[in-house]
Amino acid sequence: MSRKMRCESARGGNPQNAILFAVVLGISAGFVGITAHAAVADLLPDEKPSPAPGLETKAQRQADALAWFATGLFAEESEGPEKARESYGKSLDLDPGHTALAVKMAYDHLRRGETAEAIALLKDSIKAAPKDIAPCLALSSIYLRHLHKPDLAAKDAQRALDIAPGNFAPYAALWELHQVQGHTAKAEAVLERADRSKSEVADFWLSLAELTGRNFLRDGGGTLSDAETQRMFRALDKAGEHGAKDPEALSKVGDLYVLSRQMEKALPYYQKVVELKPSLTGAREKLAGCYLETGRSDAAIEVIEGIVASDPLNIAAYDQLTALYLKADDRERALASAGQGLILASSDPVRYDHVIRLCLDQKKSAAALAHVREALKRFPKTPMFSFFEALALSEDKQPEEALMAFERTIVQAGNSQPDLLDGDFYFSYGAAAEQAKHYDRATGLFRKSIDLDPANAARAYNYLGYMWVERGENLEEAGQLIRRALEMEPGNGAYLDSLGWLYFKQGKFQEAFTELLRAAEALPEPDAVVFDHIGDAADKLGKKTEAVLYWQKALTLDPENKKLAEKLDKVAEKVVQQPNPPVAITPQTPEQ
């Protein structure tokens, strides 16, 4: 609490108080030549105060109490709590109804082991301010926790409840008292009584809901009876009703429904919070999370896009958007959002990692290379970025440069990150070697990939087998490798294509045609290589029309493929070179 606020919380309301506040504020504003203690000392009473002319004794006592209270504040801030005790004590002697100070001083007595003094002080405060529940609750707590006298504690807690039945604090005190004694039924009865309250204060009902579902809400480890569940939800709805214009209260209602795993119930409260106060910290994020949990991804995206629009520097919002776009399989926008996050936090290597992976996933090799090289400038000793460089170069059809990057990765990762050099690493390394036409080197790398992770080696089995099939080498072993890959992933279209192409190379054109058609059906997207293979198999079977059809499909997907264009040109030449077929003349009837 600021010095100004603490002074304003003191009791009093007369001209001398105004003078004191002016002095305090003047000091806070930096008035020169007057020290805090000197300024306040001018207002302090003599040791034997006498009423000022025209000022009633009660008002004088309050003014003097306020002066000593202010002196205590200054002493506490400048010299520590011990120096303030005397001034605070004199303030309470003059005004024992200053309950906040009485409670503060009571706990100071307890800290010093002066329990009797603490109790006496609180009893005086109760007499002076019989309508204030704070000293009653403090006294109840002392009896319960320090003196272990639950009967006396219950008496003061009940007095507080009788004074303020619309305040939840006395209910909480009585509930705790009965729980400590093991009186579960009595504790439950306290909450049932609170449930019947006519309170119109949202915080009352929020407190009741929290206490009813305390264990369940805290860690999800407890269970609630049907009656407790209904009471908790009833309290939350009343909190929402009485706090209908209070966004903080509504947000808390939504939070408690989320903790109780009632997302549908939380949703309208979060919607109302955003409607009332969209700037409330975390409001739109909570609404988006609730939309997401209830399967409304589009609505969640719309909310967070609004956050980004109003706060373009909100990096957490970009992260949420990236995750949501990925969940919606909108990879383009996911990459754009992750890119914005990288711009805002370019000193974070994890963000480079995320963006580069998204680029590679989308076959954006040029963008991946640009990000990789920027990352390597910032983090030159990070093996993962050298690995990404190798992958991007391989994807960009620069296999020789990719091989050098793979070698750099091995050197860097050897000491700092050896687990990077796993089966996947050597598979990618082998693919780059195959692209560079270093077939023996590729064979060794694929075999190492298989040895490192045989349970997940289907890709390596298939790639090595297909490489040999393409070259017409080791066809028997190639067939074994491809079939092993298919045993691990029976419906993989790429592996079925490898098997079909093996049959083609072995001259088994009908088996090849059958397997290649299966491969085309199994692939998630049309593939130019598979269509080309089907066309070749159809051509060998004399199915010229089907061959042309599949070659045309392949050329549509891969228009730069010169070999496909040559095949189609040869077919066209043969058609042109054929003599014109005889035309059959059908005799006409008279009706025609």
How is this structure best summarized?
With 592 residues, the protein is mainly alpha-helical. Helix content is 74%, strand content 0%. The protein has helices at 3-8, 15-28, 36-41, 57-79, 81-94, 99-111, 115-128, 134-146, 150-163, 168-181, 184-195, 202-212, 214-219, 226-242, 247-259, 263-276, 283-293, 297-310, 315-327, 331-344, 349-361, 365-378, 383-395, 399-416, 423-435, 439-452, 458-471, 475-488, 493-505, 509-522, 528-540, 544-557, 562-577.
Secondary structure layout plus pairing:
Elements: H1 3-8, H2 15-28, H3 36-41, H4 57-79, H5 81-94, H6 99-111, H7 115-128, H8 134-146, H9 150-163, H10 168-181, H11 184-195, H12 202-212, H13 214-219, H14 226-242, H15 247-259, H16 263-276, H17 283-293, H18 297-310, H19 315-327, H20 331-344, H21 349-361, H22 365-378, H23 383-395, H24 399-416, H25 423-435, H26 439-452, H27 458-471, H28 475-488, H29 493-505, H30 509-522, H31 528-540, H32 544-557, H33 562-577
Helix pairs in contact: 2-4, 4-5, 6-7, 7-8, 8-9, 8-10, 9-10, 10-11, 12-14, 12-15, 14-15, 15-16, 16-17, 17-18, 18-19, 19-20, 20-21, 21-22, 21-23, 22-23, 23-24, 23-25, 24-25, 25-26, 26-27, 27-28, 27-29, 28-29, 29-30, 30-31, 31-32, 32-33
List the keywords.
Serine Threonine Protein Phosphatase 5, Tetratricopeptide repeat, 33 helices, disordered N terminus, single chain, mainly alpha, 592 residues, 0% strand, disordered C terminus
Characterization of this structure:
- Helices cover 74% and strands 0% of the residues.
- It is an all-alpha fold and 592 residues long.
- Among the domains are: 76 residues, Serine Threonine Protein Phosphatase 5, Tetratricopeptide repeat (Alpha Horseshoe); 93 residues, Serine Threonine Protein Phosphatase 5, Tetratricopeptide repeat; 53 residues, Serine Threonine Protein Phosphatase 5, Tetratricopeptide repeat (Alpha Horseshoe).
- The N terminus and C terminus are likely disordered.
